[in-house]
Amino acid sequence: MRSAPADQSTRERIRDAAVLRFARDGFGASIRSIATDAGVSAALVIHHFGSKDELHAECDERVLAEIRGAKNETIDELASGQGILHRFAAADEYAPMLGYVLRSLQDGGPVGRTFIEQMIEDAVGYTKHGIEAGLIKPSLDETARARYLVLSALGSLMLEMTLNPSEDPSDISGIVRGFLATSYLPMIELYTQGVFTTRRMLDEYLLYVPDPPQDAAAEPPSE
Question: What is the C-alpha end-to-end distance of the chain, expressed in Å?
């Protein structure tokens, strides 16, 4: 997560400590451990949030807001011609957020499912932002594309963690660095160049889709 401001309130300090603790240890982490990380008493955590479930919910909001902000900033930078290599260098800064997302995915259940669905909804929003900025091509089904991209990205990271487990599962930054070292090039290549040299496969598939989605974008004539 981004560096905390010097004037951060006690409530915000507890929340950010909880995000880090949940990312490292999962949502079974105790209130006491979070309180220790934040430098407060367990009673003060309960005073501010009422319960661990409420703290969990506020952490969800914080992480989702951070992801939305980072995605929209990246789109604006690319659309204005700025470089984004500094974001690659700051991978450690975003590692706790990614770790938190993975814990939500592993946790499953209604809370985890709601969190991932909100990620997908947010992805539709910042993808629309990218289309309006002239950076992203429109899709025949924006929601379906956003869902696929979010689930593909999370699934790839989950598989990487499963097939090549870290010696220290709590080292979220190390896990993220290892994943990005092997994934950045093919990921950027796919996003910028694609795979096929023709859209013939898409044209053939569309022959079997009787009713295009309501949000279907205008497509150029096939080659």
Answer: 45
Q: How is domain 59-207 classified at the architecture level of CATH? A: Orthogonal Bundle (1.10)
On whether the CB atoms of residues 124 and 139 are closer than 8 A, the answer is no
Environment class of residue 221 by beta-carbon count within 10 Å: exposed (0-12), middle (13-18) or buried (19+)?
exposed
What pLDDT is stored for residue 211 in this prediction?
64
* Res. 167: pLDDT tops 70: yes
Angle at 156 between CA 81 and CA 208, to 5 degrees: 85
- pTM, full prediction: 0.76
SS3 129: helix
Averaged pLDDT, 41-53: 95
Q: Quote the tokens at residue 41.
A: 């008493």
Name the amino acid, one letter, at 78.
L
Q: Is 74 helix (H, G, I), strand (E, B) or coil?
A: helix
CA atoms within 13 A on the CB side of 220: 6
Rounded Cα distance, 187 and 99, in Å: 19
Q: Please, how many CA atoms are within 13 Å of residue 130, restricted to the half-sphere of its CB? A: 23
